[in-house]
Write a structure and sequence with these properties.
It is a single chain. By secondary structure, the chain is of the alpha+beta class. The protein contains 7 helices and 8 strands. It has helices at 2-17, 20-42, 49-70, 75-85, 142-149, 156-163, 215-238, and strands at 89-96, 106-112, 118-123, 130-136, 168-175, 186-193, 197-203, 210-212. The chain has an 8-stranded antiparallel β-sheet with strand order 4-3-2-1-5-6-7-8. β2 and β3 form a beta hairpin. The longest helix is centred in the last third of the chain and has 24 residues, at 215-238. The radius of gyration is 32 Å and the shape is globular.
């Protein structure tokens, strides 16, 4: 009923005022059609998450490479500076690029002191000066760390030096429970090299031998085998 009234009104206006009213009515329909098309085109489905993820990974690698290249203080030097401030055993050292903006870039070194207390020491990667040192009460694996280090002759600084031939060391950490690699405790070292990105290494705490860390690849292969086995089992059940 309303549509008939509108058409009648437009027709009457056209008879009185010429074709102007018809033009306005037509324009109004076009606007509604355009708006409808605009609303429809505004609803889009993006399927480029994978592309963005890959781009983000490349950006992260570039930032890591840049941070590693700009650090004048090596991992071994950072460990030495931390131990000079807080005596004990360095269990890990990691280069923090300071993305948070609230904290500047620094080496973060975890030290287990002789009395069993843990300390986190921040070292300036440009000067080697101690930026901060505080006690860390969150650590609870003191016994495991000491057991892993028993009888070893290669410390964190030496492990970092051993792997430095593969690139700039950005972190070194004790794998005290041997969950990765050959199942034995080892120093896990991460390096960055131009054109190669991030690489992971394992350094034997007794001999200093450096080997590529293939644990992630092996784990992925194991998961794939499990999936295949599961699929075979399902086929058998279906029969």
């Amino acid at each position: 009923m309303k549509r008939n009234i509108v058409i009648a009104a437009v027709t009457a206006a056209a008879l009185i005022g010429g074709g102007t009213a018809t033009a306005l009515a037509t324009t109004g329909d076009d606007d509604r059609d355009t708006a409808s098309r605009a609303d429809t085109s505004a609803v889009t489905v993006s399927d480029d998450d994978g592309v963005r993820d890959e781009a983000d990974d490349r950006d992260d690698d570039r930032r890591d490479d840049s941070g590693a290249a700009s650090a004048k203080v090596t991992a071994a030097d950072a460990v030495a500076a931390a131990l000079a401030d807080t005596p004990g055993t360095a269990v890990s050292a990691e280069l923090d690029d300071g993305d948070d903006r609230r904290e500047r870039a620094a080496w973060e070194v975890d030290v287990l002191s002789g009395d069993g207390t843990w300390h986190s020491v921040r070292i300036d990667p440009a000067t080697g000066k101690v930026l901060a040192s505080e006690r860390d009460d969150d650590e609870d694996d003191t016994a495991e760390v000491r057991a892993a280090l028993k009888g070893t002759s290669v410390d964190a600084a030496e492990a970092a030096k051993a792997a430095a031939g593969h690139g700039t060391v950005t972190s070194v950490e004790l794998d005290d429970d041997g969950d990765h690699g050959d199942g034995k405790p080892a120093w896990e070292v991460e390096t960055h090299a131009s054109g190669k990105g991030e690489q992971d290494w394992r350094v034997d705490p007794k001999t200093g031998k450096v080997t590529a860390d293939r644990s992630d690849e092996a784990h992925g292969s194991h998961d794939s085998d499990d999936a295949d086995d599961s699929g075979s089992s399902d086929d058998t059940d279906d029969d």
